[in-house]
Amino acid sequence: MSESTKGACPKVFCIANQKGGVGKTTTAVNLAAGLSMLGKRVLLVDLDPQGNATMGSGIDKATREVNLYHVLIDQEPLEKATIKSPDGGYDVLPSNRELSGAEIDLVTMTERERKLGDAIKNSTTVYDYVLIDCPPTLSVLTLNGLAAANGVIIPMQCEYFALEGLSDLVNTIKRVYRNMNPNLNLIGLLRVMFDSRVTLQQQVSSQLEGHFKEKVFTTIIPRNVRLAEAPSYGLPGVIYDKSSRGARAYMDFAKELIARVESDQPIQSA
Questions:
Q1: Which site among 15, 17, 181, 214 is 20 to 30 Å from 156 CA-CA?
Q2: 160-179 vs 199-212: helix axis angle to the nearest 10?
Q3: Which residues, other chains included, contact 204 with Cβ-Cβ below 8 Å and sequence gap of 6+?
Q4: SS3 content of the chain, % helix, strand, coil (to 5)
Q5: Residue 171: which residues within 8 A CB-CB, separation 6 or more?
């Protein structure tokens, strides 16, 4: 990555959903790789103590002596903790179970919800995009992600219970927007693990389009075995099998995101 003076302004997006198992990490890893393949300079922040985005990027989380935990508690600068994904072409701010301790350590710190945002702002490395893979809970870690971001991407399955959780998440985004981060926007909803043969999924998809309109990405990520296999090889799906339906869909999504956020049209608030 090229170096520049402090103050560079990447597009910082949270990949968030308060429901687990909805494809947040798969989306974060594949979007990072897809954007990188399209010539963008990308940092993927693994904000989940499980470290799945770290492992899915081909990085052994257990061997990283300096990681996101040390950045959040002000022990190390962001640059010292980042490492390049061996095959993905993007940088990773890795995490492991140490990050769970950050929630306790941050309690006594001032401006604790802004630690990640401050680290990104103070970084001397130039990025076009910073993607934050959030944990599936509304914790101080997630608040750090939302406070640092200027946009939220919500991956979701087209199922009944997903709709219930979506309203809670949108309300959370609105509260953070009002009370903590007036620059936070809802970038869009990404339909993932989609099976067009299931009538309910088609119905929920139509409801999303009817209610959220242009906030729903046109790209739909299908349920795909190759995407599910890729993390076990430490590879993003768009690299593991470029010809698979899932990989092609994520590349389409990366292109759609670039077109949406790099146009001259302002992004509406949540």
A1: 181
A2: 30
A3: 158, 159, 160, 162, 163
A4: 45, 15, 35
A5: none
Mean pLDDT on 253-257: 97
pLDDT digits (tens, 9 = 90+) for 168-223: 888 989 999 999 999 999 999 999 999 888 888 999 899 899 989 999 999 999 99
Query: Token pair for residue 244?
Result: 């698979």
pLDDT tens, residue by residue, 58-97: 999 998 889 999 999 999 999 999 999 999 999 999 999 8
Contact 82, 123 (CB under 8 A): no
Which one-letter DSSP state was computed for residue 217?
E
Token pair for residue 6?
Answer: 């402090």
User: At residue 163, what is the residue type?
Assistant: L
Widest Cα–Cα separation across the chain: 53
Q: Which residues of 192-220 are buried (b: 16+ CB within 10 A; e: fewer)?
A: bbbeeeeeebeebbeebeeeeeebbbebb
SS3 9: coil
Whether the CB-CB separation of 55 and 94 falls below 8 Å is answered with no
| Domains, the chain, ordered by start | 11-261 (3.40.50.300)
Burial 92-127 (b: 16+ CB within 10 A, else e): bbbbbebbbebbeebeeeeebbbbbbbbbbebebeb
What is the secondary structure of 181-201 as a DSSP string? Answer: -TT-BEEEEEEEEE-TT-HHH
Give the pTM.
0.91
Rounded to an integer, what distance in angstroms lies between the CA atom of residue 219 and that of residue 62? Answer: 35
